[in-house]
Amino acid sequence: MRTLKSEVGKLVNVVFDRIWKEEVNNFQKSEKNKSVERKNLEEKIEKLTDMTLKTNSERLKRAYEKQIEKTMTELEKMSDVSIEELDLNIPYQTAIEKATGLLKSPYKIWESVDVKEKHQLFFFIFEQKLPYSKIEGYRTDNILSAIRLFEEFATPSTNDVDRTGLEPATPSLQMRCSTR
To answer: Which of 19, 43, 99, 149 counts the most CB atoms within 10 A of its CB?
Structure first.
C-alpha cells in the first residue's frame, strides 16, 4: 500500500487553498452578474406589462404577453442554475479532507461518499466508462494522468517490492537449488 509523501500533503493544502479562494471569488462575481441580469429581466417584464396595459390592440397585447412569458422563463432558468453551479455549503475542511483523503486512500474515500459523488469521482479518475468483459471483468489500459500523479506523489509501503525488481540468484544459490 502506498501513502502520501508528507511534503506533497503540504503542497496539496497550499494549492487547495488557492483554488478554493479563486472558486469562491469566481462564484461571487458570477452571482453579482446574475443579480444585475435578474434585475434587468425584471425591469423588462415590468416595461412589457406596462406596454400591454396601455395598448388597445389585441395583436400587440398577444405579442407583449409572449415576450413576457419568454422573459419569465429566462428569469426562472437563472434562478435554478445559480443554486446548482457551486455548492458553497460544503465546508472547506470537509472538502480539503476529501481532496487529501483521495490521494492518501482512494478506496476509503470511495466507500465514504454517496452515489452522486462516486459518479463524479469515477469520471475524475477515468475519462469514459470502463469496458466490461464477461470473462475478465472491468478492464482499461488507459491510465489517466490523475492516477499517474498519485503514483508520483505516493511513497511505497515497506511491504511493497522495490520498483527495481529482484536481483537474479547468485551462482552459489542457484547451485544449491539445483542439487536438491
So the answer is: 99
DSSP E strands in 26-166: the ranges are 132-133, 137-138, 154-155
Are 83 and 123 contained in the same domain? Answer: no
Global confidence as pTM: 0.48
Q: How far is CA 105 from the centre of its chain?
A: 17
- Cell 494549492 belongs to 15
What confidence category does residue 173 fall into, taking pLDDT thresholds of 50, 70 and 90?
very low
Amino acid letter for position 124: F
Write down the pLDDT at residue 179: 46
How far from 104 is each of 53, 98, 101, 151, CA to CA, in Å? Answer: 65, 10, 5, 11
The answer on 102 and 46 residing in a single domain is: no
**Confidence band of 64 (pLDDT split at 50, 70, 90):** very high
Is 164 a member of any domain? no
Task: Assess if residue 113 is contained within a domain.
Answer: yes
64 Cβ neighbours under 8 A, 6+ residues apart: 48, 49, 51, 52, 55
The rounded distance, in Å, linking the Cα atoms of 128 and 105 is: 22
Q: Looking at the 3D structure of the chain, how many domains does it have?
A: 2
Can you give the residue range of the structural domain that contains 35? Answer: 3-89
Same-domain status, 85 and 102: no
